[in-house]
Amino acid sequence: MKLYNLSVLHKGDKVHLLKAAYDMSSFSYFQTSSIQEFMTFTSQLIVEHSEKGSRTSVKEKEYLCHVYVRNDSLAGVVIADSEYPSRVCFTLLDKVLDEFSKVVDRIDWPSGSPDTITYTALDGYLSRYQNPQDIDRMSKVQSELDETKIILINTMESLLKRGEKLDDLVFKSEELTTSTKTFYKTARKQNSCCEIM
């Protein structure tokens, strides 16, 4: 999972970039300026075609561009790979745009440029949000659930590889009541989803 770009833009008669941060560590040195230029162009284009008050995700090859255009014409764009959780991107955009609107005077938005706007937090946000599990509790819980699922699947596979069948284990178990064993047997007969291959 990777974030490549975090931008703040203004949507007026023309969309223009106010501030941006880039992570070009996965690209060669000779590609960085062209890629940054293309990311800026893409961000401006998507904001231009987005309605005020909207949140949108646009897929471009293996990248996702997450866009939030506020009703006050302030817009944010995050460009990430397709594995990065959209929910975390929109949380980041909310936070950045709220902070930006408090730090940078609204009169400077229509005429501002990356050189004239004094907002320095984008690089820090881009760096901190590289690992969504460090920031977002839901991503961390999902990751733990995925790990637990893998462990359970591996455990069941190792049991079955040793020649033991789940049916045999259920009926040998002394912890299960007779009614539970009967329920299991009936469910196995009636529902093919209970079969483990």
Protein model, in words:
Residues 8-126 form the Longin domain. It is a lipid-anchor. This is Synaptobrevin homolog YKT6-B-like. Keywords: Coiled coil, Lipoprotein, Membrane, Methylation, Palmitate, Prenylation, Protein transport, Transport. One of its GO terms (molecular function) is SNAP receptor activity. The protein has 197 residues and is α+β, with helices and mostly antiparallel strands. It has 2 domains: 3-130, Longin domain (Beta-Lactamase), CATH 3.30.450.50; 140-194, Single alpha-helices involved in coiled-coils or other helix-helix interfaces (Up-down Bundle), CATH 1.20.5.110. It contains 7 helices and 5 strands. The protein has helices at 32-48, 86-103, 122-128, 132-135, 137-161, 166-172, 178-190; strands at 3-11, 15-22, 54-60, 63-69, 74-81. Strands 2-1-5-4-3 form a 5-stranded antiparallel beta sheet, with helices on both faces. The longest helix is centred in the last third of the chain and has 25 residues, at 137-161. The mean pLDDT is 78.
Summarize the helices and strands and which ones pair or pack.
Blueprint: E1 3-11, E2 15-22, H1 32-48, E3 54-60, E4 63-69, E5 74-81, H2 86-103, H3 122-128, H4 132-135, H5 137-161, H6 166-172, H7 178-190
Antiparallel strand pairs: 1-2, 1-5, 3-4, 4-5
What key attributes describe this structure?
single chain, 197 residues, alpha+beta, Beta-Lactamase, Single alpha-helices involved in coiled-coils or other helix-helix interfaces, 2 domains, five-stranded antiparallel β-sheet, 7 helices, elongated, transport, coiled coil
